[in-house]
Amino acid sequence: MKVILISRKHGGSRSIELGRWSRALLSLCCLGLPIGLAASGYIAGQESGAKALRGATLDAPQDESTQLTEQQNALKDEEARLNQRKLQAMTLNLAELEARMTRLDALGQHLTAMADLEQGEFDFSQPPAVGGPVASEFSGDFSSGGVDDEMDRFASRLDDREQQMEMLESLLTNSKWQEQSSVAGSPVKGGYMSSRYGWRIDPITGKRSMHTGLDFAGKPGSEIVTVASGVVTWTGRDGDYGNTVEISHGDDYVTRYAHNKEILVQPGDVVRKGETIALMGASGRATGNHLHYEVYKNGRSVDPASYVARTQP
Known about the structure:
CATH topology of the largest domain: Glucose Permease (Domain IIA)
Oligomer: single chain
CATH class of the largest domain: Mainly Beta
Largest sheet: 10 strands, antiparallel
Shape: rod-shaped
């Protein structure tokens, strides 16, 4: 094998004759150098990657721990904000309930005055009286302990007011029922008493007879009113009484309204005290326009005068 060397300076050339061993050495040098460089680069890359992996492995636990700590702190901050908003909402609700309680106290005082109850029996201006034996204390950690205490006090006040209002309602209801159902007052809105209860001279026969009611004379068509709340038990026309209304008031009381021109109610009607039930007339056995009014107690006729004189039960 010949190797030709060319000189760039003088432009001449020179040839060298290489033997078998020289050619082998030259080939080994030409092929081994690139392979060696490539192998060196590969080994260096492997070592660099291993170092980077070891560094990442060492840094990973530290990064995860930092992230976990940050997340925990964020959760604590969010929980604190939620508790603060909850506390603010509870405070606003407590303020609203206090305002409503104030109105309830004012209503209770007004109803107490209307019912004319004994002073001090129902007192809506003072906190409720409470007490009891000493109990074991409970120790707890409440972030909203102040509001919880206020809510407990408010619940106690509310229970007291609720009990007082229920009792007051019961008293007023009973008082109202007694006032409505008690036979009292005049059965006419206009006119005058023309004949009393008891023995008298009959205006038609001229003979002495028993008059079992009161007569009220007035203009025809004058309003006849019930003297107490009750249920209409009978309406109709009777030969002597004319157009008549009978009302049952409970406690074995019955009232009768006779000689009416017109009847405005029917059997089964529930009527209230002072309600117009008929119009004055002269039906039946009568000498003129008037109301014949009777009161029965336990099925017996009684003098209505004492009931007419009553202005309240």
